[in-house]
Amino acid sequence: MTATDPARIPEIAAGVRRAFDSGRTRPIAWRLRQLAALEAMLVEREHELAAALHDDLGKSAAEAFVTELSVVRAEAATARRRLRRWLRPRPVRTGLALAPARAWTRYEPLGAVLIIGPWNYPVQLLLAPLVGALAAGDAAVLKPSELAPVTSALLAELLPNHLDREAIAVVEGGAAETQALLAQRWDRIFYTGGGRVARIVARAAAEHLTPTTLELGGKSPVYVDEGVDLAVAARRIAWGKFTNAGQTCVAPDYVLVAPGARDRLVRELGAAIAELYGPDPLESPDYGRIVSRDHFDRLSALLGDGRIAVGGTSDPEGLRLAPTVLVDVDPASPVMQEEIFGPILPVLVTPGPREAIAFVRARPKPLALYTFTGSRRVRRAFARSTSSGALVHGMTLAHLAIGELPFGGVGESGMGAYHGEASLRTFSHERAEAAKPLRPDTLALVYPPIGRAVMRLLRRLLP
Ligand code: NAD
């Protein structure tokens, strides 16, 4: 990765704004061409992209395909297929008082947008938002994470070769370069990452009254009831947790389980881990590594916050930490205070669903909340009494594959959403339009002076 010279950043921002102002990004034909070019890039460059993801995070080619490349391709393909329909004006009732008149809304592009990506899914989380910007007809600057430097460099090379380089630019670098970008005026800032930097982004955006989408994280809980098939539940929890070595914003962070089921669940988690990654996950080509030494050290320190029931081994040289299940964890300990964002899964006992709900409610609103229960009553109680970006029953992570579900957080887990049509909405302004013929001039009714008879009529017509 070669960081972009911050002195060049104002000119890069001005360049994409000029491209937007020239009108070149507005035609639907331009948007469809860019989306097709993005899809083609992902197909033609699949091997290089997978190799970069392997270098940065130890992802296997299969994992890179399933969790990154195919996700962006599906988003782009859906946007391309549906774009004309999504862009149709939407009629709105005008009401009797204004008749005859028509009203409708229509999506218009916002302008020049800034997309700031994180390191954990460095392709998906930079390019899936880009799909929304392209569909909306915006120009964009993309800032990949410096903590995935090989992927950052590759995207900086590929994107200008495949997309309209006047309208889409890549800036590489870390905090200094991002702050130089944040000093520019944007029409939307789309940020994915942690809450600390999100506050820096929101403060900078306030200077220009720029709307922001903040895709953050947090501790996503899993609730497991006694009566469910614990073998399947454990497989689905282990898969969601240990994909990308736990470095997933919607990964299960911790499990709350009924007392009678804890030991069986822990045994099944151990079996599921062995099934997914073999007897020694540190040797598995399907199991990723921790992104940096700092994160590895932070995670290693958390291992002491409970009794290790599964895993706990590590390879400090290779930054690999085995899938680990912790029991007997104190809710006040660090592993239950911060987002774990690594392959450590605390399993805590809870007396029942009511206490589990109280536990979740006492903490910041998570990005995802998962339940495994056979009881509709319990599912409904979670729906009514908790809040989270998503509420998912019977699986973890896989709800992201439902392209029409908006993806985003609430409260501490973020604001705004994307995926499918929600991406178009995020990167557009939904403009209100209305029209009324000049004849007959029915508006004359409300022009002063308003007589008694007309007033009586108005009371009936107006709410
Ligand atoms: P990160 O370190 O990659 O940082 C995100 C971006 O902020 C990077 O581009 C980085 O260059 C920039 N940045 C870092 N310091 C900065 C500073 N001082 N000023 C300006 N910019 C700065 O990401 P992270 O924060 O380590 O990511 C992990 C977090 O992201 C977790 O909390 C995770 O849950 C969350 N996350 C959320 C989603 C989602 O879609 N909601 C997805 C992935 C990760």
Summarize this entry quickly.
With 463 residues, the protein is of the alpha/beta class.
Proportion of strand residues: 15-25%
CATH homologous group name of the largest domain: Aldehyde Dehydrogenase, Chain A, domain 1
CATH topology of the largest domain: the name is Aldehyde Dehydrogenase, Chain A, domain 1
Radius of gyration: 25 Å
Q: What structural class do helix, strand and pairing data support?
A: alpha/beta
CATH top-level class of the largest domain: Alpha Beta
Q: Give a quick account of the main beta sheet: strands, pairing sense, barrel closure.
A: 7 strands, mixed
Distance between the termini: 61 Å
In total, the number of domains comes to 2
| Uncertain residue ranges | none
Query: Strands across the major sheet, in which order?
Result: 10-13-14-9-8-15-16
Compute the average pLDDT. 97
Number of strands: 18
Spatial shape: globular
Bound molecules: nicotinamide-adenine-dinucleotide
Percent helix, as a range, is 40-55%
CATH architecture of the largest domain: 3-Layer(aba) Sandwich
Count of helical segments?
A: 15
